TrEMBL record:
The modification Phosphoserine is found at residue 102. The lineage of its organism: Bacteria, Bacillati, Bacillota, Bacilli, Lactobacillales. This is Isocitrate dehydrogenase [NADP]. The keyword Mitochondrion does not apply. It comes from Streptococcus minor. NADP(+) binds at residue 330.
Length: 396
């Protein structure tokens, strides 16, 4: 019988046939989702000898949804994800034109998915700009709800910005706005709660996965109360809630200034296990880290609220309209986000099987066109890539 995943006493209760909603995605979404789903099903079947099975439930969003319902993000989609907690999505076309929010942002905000989680690791066979890309194995926890992404800004020259500058100068004694007549102003909120819940999630992840180093990345040398607050609240939280783990060495907490972090991930990436960052720093670091293992096109991601259990796993690339419908797209981003999903629901053996099958493809020189071209190899199609994985899983 198919059932809903629920959160009980802070832990997910996952039935044998959980209902998991999926958003196919636009453009290459169809190409990659259908093939990825076949891999997921084969791995679940193999791992549990048919005793468990995912009941995939399609929900609509994006262009496909607009074409069918006239709505880019129907309430029903949000309601179903709200109810079933865990979902997976392909890339969504961002509607062009005023008044429509980015669908990805809307999903994150509606479900308050405060942690953006990005594992960054190297797959042998992928081209990387580093000499030793295998030394990079880092889990990024990026705060997803605060910082400049709150979108609180006033345009230079507007009546509103004049009010703000007047208030800052007259009431707050601010004297350092270099060009007050022509400045735009933006506000960066960083809270205790927002920082703590993200850093707690990073620490919990580290402890659960026997990774002992958690590094707080910040720009607190310049922004003492926002970025510096993130750092300070992180240390205080660790001392208050994880004193025992700190004492036994099970957890080591440290911090690093963001610019030095971007240097160190190139020079000594092995120094980091789990990193917690504010939203903007996390944005930069996610792409920089993915690029240094050559994985920008295959990186998975998840947006999670560990308190409610809600989690959406996603391919991080776009809809690639230039290759849509041609059976050429690289399915690894959605496949690896599926691995994150299976790990999240505790089906670790499924995640491990899928990861090994990807490694096996690369070891055999089976790459999709985006990666094969660089090596002068004959590319395999999306469906061939995933069929090779299924064959490997069934034989293993
Ligand atoms: P894009 O990621 O779709 O494409 C950039 C380049 O990378 C293209 O040459 C494309 O062919 C290639 N590419 C992307 N994914 C690939 C894959 N899996 N396999 C092989 N090649 C791949 O970025 P672009 O062109 O900026 O955006 C296209 C649309 O996607 C826009 O509507 C954008 O808003 C949306 N988008 C959605 C995202 C999401 O839903 N998470 C993220 C980024 C963009």
């Amino acid at each position: 019988m198919t059932e809903t995943i629920v959160l009980e006493k802070g832990r997910l209760r996952v039935p044998d046939c959980p209902i998991i909603p999926f958003i196919e995605g636009d453009g290459i979404g169809k190409d990659i989702w259908q093939n990825a789903q076949a891999v997921f099903d084969a791995a679940v079947e193999k791992a549990f000898s048919g005793q468990k099975k995912v009941a995939w439930l399609e929900v609509l969003a994006g262009k496909k949804s607009f074409d069918q319902t006239g709505n880019w993000l129907p309430d029903e989609t949000l309601d179903i994800i709200q109810k079933h907690l865990v979902a997976i999505k392909g890339p969504l076309e961002t509607p062009v034109g005023g008044g429509i929010r980015s669908l990805n942002v809307a999903l994150r905000q509606e479900l308050d998915l405060y942690a953006c989680v990005r594992p960054v690791r190297y797959f042998k066979g992928i081209d990387s700009p580093l000499k030793h890309p295998e030394k990079t194995d880092i889990i990024i926890f990026r705060e997803n709800t605060e910082d400049i992404y709150a979108g609180i800004e006033w345009q230079a020259g507007s009546a509103d910005v004049k009010k703000i500058i007047q208030f800052l100068q007259a009431d707050m004694g601010v004297k350092k706005i270099r060009f007050p007549e022509s400045s735009s102003i933006g506000i960066k909120p960083i809270s205790v709660e927002g920082s703590e819940r993200l850093i707690r999630a990073a620490i919990e992840y580290a402890l659960e996965n026997n990774l002992n180093k958690v590094t707080l990345v910040h720009k607190g040398n310049i922004q003492k109360f926002t970025e510096g607050g993130f750092r300070q609240w992180g240390y205080e939280l660790a001392q208050r809630e994880y004193a025992k783990e700190l004492e036994t060495g099970q957890l080591e907490i440290s911090d690093i200034i963001a610019d030095n972090f971007l240097q160190q991930i190139l020079l000594k990436p092995e120094k980091f296990d789990v990193v917690a960052l504010t939203n903007l720093n996390g944005d930069y670091a996610s792409d920089a880290l993915a690029a240094q293992v050559g994985g920008i096109g295959i990186s998975p991601g998840a947006n999670i609220n560990y308190l409610t259990g809600h989690a959406i796993f996603e391919a991080t690339h776009g809809t690639a309209p230039d290759i849509a419908g041609q059976d050429k797209a690289n399915p690894c981003s959605v496949l690896l986000s599926g691995c994150m999903l299976f790990d999240y629901i505790g089906w670790h053996q499924v995640a491990s099987m899928i990861t090994k099958a990807i490694e096996n493809n690369f070891a055999n020189g089976w790459f999709t066109a985006d990666l094969a071209g660089e090596k002068g190899l004959q590319a395999v199609s999306t469906s061939q890539f995933t069929q090779n994985m299924i064959d490997f899983i069934q034989k293993s």
